[in-house]
Amino acid sequence: MTHPGPGWAVALERSAFGAWMRQALWAYPAAEILHLVGIALLVGSVALFDLRLLGLSRHLPVSLLAHHLLPWAWWGFALVVVSGLGMFTAHASEWLASPAFPVKMGLLVAAGLNRAVFHHGVYRTVESWDRDVPVPRAARASGALSLLLWGGVVVCGRLLAYL
């Protein structure tokens, strides 16, 4: 079912792919399942790394943890983007009308910016605080902010079904 919205969103919903996503028995549920798996990989990896930045498991080298978790986070992100675009195609107008959608997208962009600032900033000195020493305040702040932002993304994504 389409809702009043921008012409491009209505056209997207009325496309063959949008109709298929809404009408095929397993298309939308499969996209939702892939989306949940992607969220688990992405947010799970990010949360583990952020908790290390906040001081948990100080015996684990930050650089080794980043090297191990980053590929999982990227695979999760790819799954989330592909499945999310599929679900968006089915309900573009409805999602655009939801107050949760722009908040989710804003939090997503903020999370990406936070991580970019971290990797191009304080992470460049990780060799001096990699293991068994307190993490710099900027890294702890980035980790805490990341947890809040990704948590907000997940909450807003869930609220799309209700708002």
Taking Cα atoms only, what radius of gyration do you get, to the nearest Å? 18 Å
Please state the average pLDDT score. 95
The biggest beta sheet, please?
none
User: Total number of β-strand segments?
Assistant: 0
Tell me the fraction of residues in β-strands, as a range.
under 5%
Unreliably modeled segments: none
Helix fraction, binned, reads over 70%
Task: Quickly list its features.
163 residues, mainly alpha
In a nutshell, what does this entry contain?
By secondary structure, the chain is mostly helical. Helices cover 75% and strands 0% of the residues.
How would you describe this protein?
This protein has 163 residues and is mainly α. The chain has helices at 7-14, 16-23, 27-53, 62-90, 92-97, 100-120, 137-159. Helix 2 packs across helix 4, helix 3 runs antiparallel to helix 7 (137-159) and helix 6 (100-120) packs antiparallel against helix 7. It is elongated and about 55 Å long.
